[in-house]
Amino acid sequence: MELLAKDMAVKIGKKEIVKNASVHVKKRQFVGLIGPNGCGKSTLLKSIYKSLTPQQGTVFLDDLDVLKSSEKKVSQRLGVVGQFNEMHFDLTVHQMVMLGRTPHKGMLESDTQKDYEIVEEALARTNLLHYKERSYLSLSGGEKQRVILARTIAQQPQFMILDEPTNHLDIRYQIEILSCVKDLNIGVLAALHDLEMAAHYCDYLYAIKDGEIHAHGVPEEVLTPEIIEDLYQIKCQTFTNPVTKGLSFAYGF
Amino acid sequence: MGNMYYVMILLLIGAILLSAVLSVSIGQVSIPFKQSMDILLNVITNGKVGSLDHIQNESYHNIILQVRMPRVIFALLIGMGLALCGVVMQAIVQNPLADPYILGISSGATLGATFAILVGFGGSALLSQFGVAFGAFTGAMLTSMAVLLLSSIGGKATSIKLVLSGVVIGALCSSFSSLLIFFAKNTDAIKAVTFWSMGSLASASWDKTPILTIVVVLGSALFLFQHRILNTMLLGDESAITLGINLSVYRKLYMVLTSLIAGTMVAYAGMIGFVGLIIPHITRGIFGADHKRLMLGTLLLGALFMIWADILSRTLIDNIELPIGIITSVIGSPLFIYMIVKKGYNFGG
């Protein structure tokens, strides 16, 4: 599925957080949003998945007009893994992942064998099969995030939005989560903080500064010392990592 | 766990039926359990089952059917209703501390009842007949609508806005009630207000059961099918949107429905505290927080709890009926403490 968000503008109170930003994710592309804290990455994503109403702009998932369609219709196609969120009530991991089937269910419909199979597969993909009966709240941050990812996979989305999905996670969980998403082979738009991760996983990058698209292109074009200094006000040099052959960064030089 | 659930539900239903029969046997006139059972069976099956031949006293029939039966049904319905409103309110405000009265319903109902008792609705015959019940219901509905309006200002009705609006409007109503009491000369009426606020099932009668039955049974049936939305409520607004559910809309809808149910109950039985708070928690301890199972369990446990609270309120002290609100708190709190200590239950969080 293709995502096209055009001329998005979002104001919160009187402050313009996103100014005229356009983002295009082609079929099966993994696209990253990078930029400093508070640059408007999250706000842009939220306005795309209908959590915030933008003042201006249009969002299309193929030919579905996201902003004009019902939440239910959108959620049947679009899955979102947000930043870590708090909960006051406890569910088991299985119940939590089963909630991912909500968009596909009518009010009176019960969970079918098919739903159980889908949930089972989502648990398998995220390595959570033996966690099924564990209580969600007793899990560590990394495990919780995997459960949320499993729930989103159970939603069977054709497109996925990730909002800093690996915040606070150790390196193993960061890699697990991003690899798992990459393997789904669907269109992905992800806000990421770690530039090496962004370079490694993304096919295309948008760099955001002060609510505007500052630069965009393939990782090698965007992740240059100049652009990185523009974004984060920090000097850095890029080099090809001798071990991974991927793009690496030396900050402060 | 699957089968355990059904076994538990059947056990609860069995316990409710037995307790109901026991409840109609106990009272100032003690009727043997077997005879109560026969009278009830005889009435329910229209004479086909349950022989009346060995009933020792003619009056048993009347005592059971006219006095005690409506009361048991009241207890059952009010227990269900309170537990239902509690579990829904806790989901609406995403807070395990919520109870059916949290969003201004209690203070609104109290203000309405206080007004009805101390000032009255004047000479209007129809209004004065319902008097307190009418006042309480109107008060409850008006305040919850006010809370809803206040929390909707500036867009989405989030759970925090709802709670804060509830607190503010509640405080306002309480101060008006205090004002009324402060200027009241009639000490009997003040006592009546206090008594009302402790809750009682003494007014139970057949002519009041239809409305209560319709409201509670319809409400329960409706919410039994809302488990998906109630579950997403636990996740919060952000996640719910991504699962296709706009919580702001459902919060308002559920609040209107629960305040209708809670308002009706308050009108008939006054304020019965604690049931709506602890029954959902106890049920979560047994069935977990998934509303698919939680709802039915909560309804049944609420009914069972209330029937026993009623039995105790009538029998603890000879010839005196204690306000049921006192009983629910007195047996509820230790039960709750036991649960926390024993199971390490952490308030669902």
Question: Can you describe this structure in just a few lines?
Answer:
Chain A has 253 residues and is α/β, with parallel strands linked by helices. Chain A has 9 helices and 12 strands. Chain A folds into 2 domains: 1-77 and 157-219, 3-Layer(aba) Sandwich (Rossmann fold); 89-156, no CATH class.
Q: How would a textbook summarize the main sheet of chain B?
A: none
- Tell me how many strands of chain A there are: 12
What's the structural domain tally of chain A?
Answer: 2
Which residues of chain A sit in consecutive blocks of at least 5 with pLDDT less than 50? none
Which structural class matches the secondary elements of chain A? alpha/beta
Q: What is the CATH topology of the largest domain in chain A?
A: Rossmann fold
Helix content of chain A: 25-40%
Q: What does the radius of gyration of chain A come to?
A: 19 Å
Structural class based on helices, strands and sheet pairing of chain B: mainly alpha
Residues in helices of chain B, as a percent range: over 70%
User: Largest interface, counted with CB-CB under 8 A?
Assistant: A-B, 33 and 30 residues
Major beta-sheet overview of chain A: 6 strands, mixed
- Run of helices and strands of chain B: HHHHHHHHHHHHHH
* Global geometry of chain A: globular
Folded structure, characterized:
The complex is a heterodimer of chains A (253) and B (349). By secondary structure, chain A is α/β, with parallel strands linked by helices. Chain A is 31% helix and 28% strand. Chain A folds into two domains: 1-77 and 157-219, P-loop containing nucleotide triphosphate hydrolases (Rossmann fold); 89-156, no CATH class. Chain A contains nine helices and twelve strands. Chain A has a six-stranded mixed beta sheet with strand order 6-7-8-3-9-10, with helices on both faces. Chain A has a four-stranded antiparallel beta sheet with strand order 2-1-4-5, with helices on one face. In chain A, a hairpin with a 2-residue loop joins β9 and β10. In chain A, α4 crosses α5 (141-154) and α5 (141-154) runs parallel beside α6 (171-184). The longest helix of chain A has 14 residues, at 141-154. With 349 residues, chain B is an all-alpha fold. In chain B, α1 packs parallel to α13 and α12 packs parallel to α14. Chain B has a single domain (2-343), classed as ABC transporter involved in vitamin B12 uptake, BtuC, CATH 1.10.3470.10. Chain B is globular, with a radius of gyration of 21 Å. Chain B has 14 helices and no strands. Chain B: This is ABC transporter. Chain B: It is a multi-pass membrane protein. Chain B: Belongs to the binding-protein-dependent transport system permease family. FecCD subfamily.
